[in-house]
Every structure is written in structure tokens, then in C-alpha cells.
Here is the input.
Amino acid sequence: MAEKKPQDQINKELREKWDELEFDSQLIRAGEDPYPSTTHSLRVPLYATKSYVYSSLTELLKHHYFYSRTENPTLFALDKKLATLHGGDDAISVASGMAAVHLACSSVLQKRIKRVKPKNLSKYYPQSKPDHIPNFIMHKNQYTGTYRLFTNLYPQIGYKPKIIDMRDLNAVKKAIDEQTKFVFVETPANPTIDVINIQKCAELIHEIGGKCIVDNTFASPALQKPIKLGADLVIESLTKYINGHGDCLGGAIIGPKNELQNIRYF
Ligand SMILES: Cc1ncc(COP(=O)(O)O)c(C=O)c1O
Here is the structure.
């Protein structure tokens, strides 16, 4: 009789196949081991905990669950599902779409601020007279919450957008300079349904080493996968189509593993 494979081995082999599944099967299977070793539950349980208990530091390092804002088994399952649906490396799920927008954008922008000694911090945060260097590009008609974050709040801490019609690729090209940290592409835009060319915007910003951040909320990965078009970070308001029922809030950032690791701990 053939020797029975250990469950961990079966799960590992299934995980390696998530990328090859059809989209509908990915929705059901990706991120969810069929028999999690703790409970044998078919679906991943909701881990309603903030903290985790270990017998030693070595045990903690082995398991890596430390504090649920940064790591939680249920959210990791959601992260893996979203990453698979987008064809990305990894994802981070957070409390809302706006949290995802702010976390992705501020983590890219803060790289402009060098690590400084605490006593010098006041020079940088928040600035009473911020240096208004335009350092990212946004579309003139985009979701009002993001619009307000970028035009009201960010200028108070020294970040300033160039607001243009991003459907015009010549305008995007002209707006990009060495200060530009990212282009923010919300397409289709809410509520105008303006459509912006992700691939071309990504090519243009990559020429100067900046990032292309795409808010994919209106399309969802069922209709549009920005990473495949060259985007660096993708944002979803999970509150919308991904949730499907309009009964809870959530947000996510999808992108490369190393970048998301920095964002998770930033
Ligand atoms: C395109 C887009 N991005 C972001 C958000 C913000 O998402 P949330 O409401 O989950 O914070 C919304 C909400 O309507 C949206 O439509």
C-alpha cells in the first residue's frame, strides 16, 4: 500500500498550484489550506485575537504571528487569496480602502525623508511651513476620499500632488520630473468612469525610477490585473466588489514581497 503523505506536504503541493487554477477556483481555494493543521476546518477560521502566546523567543520566530495589526492567520489567508487573484507576490489587508491608499502612498513618499535622530524629527513632521515640492501625480477626477487625502492632508506634511488629466499621456509625460515618487492611477475612476492607460503610465514613471500605484477598486481582479500591466502596487477597497455584499469594510495592497514587507512594518 502507498505510504500516506503527511498533511503539511499535501498542503504545500496544493499551494504551489494556486497560480494555475482558473479564476473561479482561485476565489474558492487560494489562500485556504484544505485542512489547516490546527483545526482540520475546511475553511480558514476567524482568528479573533490581537496577541499570540509562545513558550520562547525561538518559538515566536518560527511562527511569526506576533500582533494582529501586522500578522493574523485569517488575514494572511485573505492576503494570499488576493495576491493569487492579481498574479502578485503578496498582499496586505487593512481596515479600509482609504487605509490601503494612505499606507501605500505614504510608505512610498516617506522614502524621501531620511532616518533622523528623534530630536531632529520636528524638522520633518508635521511641518508648519512644508516645502511644497510636487512629488506625485494624480488624476483630476478621482474618488473624493482619495482626492481629499491628497489635496487637503498631504500638503500639510509637505507632500503635494500635480493634478492633471491622466487620460492624456502627453500630460503625464510632461508632469513627471525627478521629484515624482509615484503616479496614482485610479481606473476606471469613481464616479466618472474615466479610463487611464496603466501600462503607459507605468512605463513613463519607471523611466525615472518612480512607482505606479493603481487603485483597482472599480474593476476588481475579475476584470483588470494591473500588475500584469506593469503596476508596482495595487490597491483594492475590499468594501466594494470583492466583498460583494456591501456589508463590511476592508482594503488591501497587492505587490512584490520585499516592498510589502517594508510597508507592513512601516
Ligand atoms: C475607487 C475607490 N478607492 C477607494 C475607496 C475607499 O474605500 P473604503 O470606503 O473601503 O475606505 C473607494 C470608496 O468608495 C473607492 O470607490
Summary: The radius of gyration is 20 Å. The mean pLDDT is 89. The pocket of pyridoxal-5'-phosphate is lined by residues 96-98, 101, 143, 145-146, 186, 190, 215, 217-218, 237, 239, 249, 251 (CB under 6 Å).
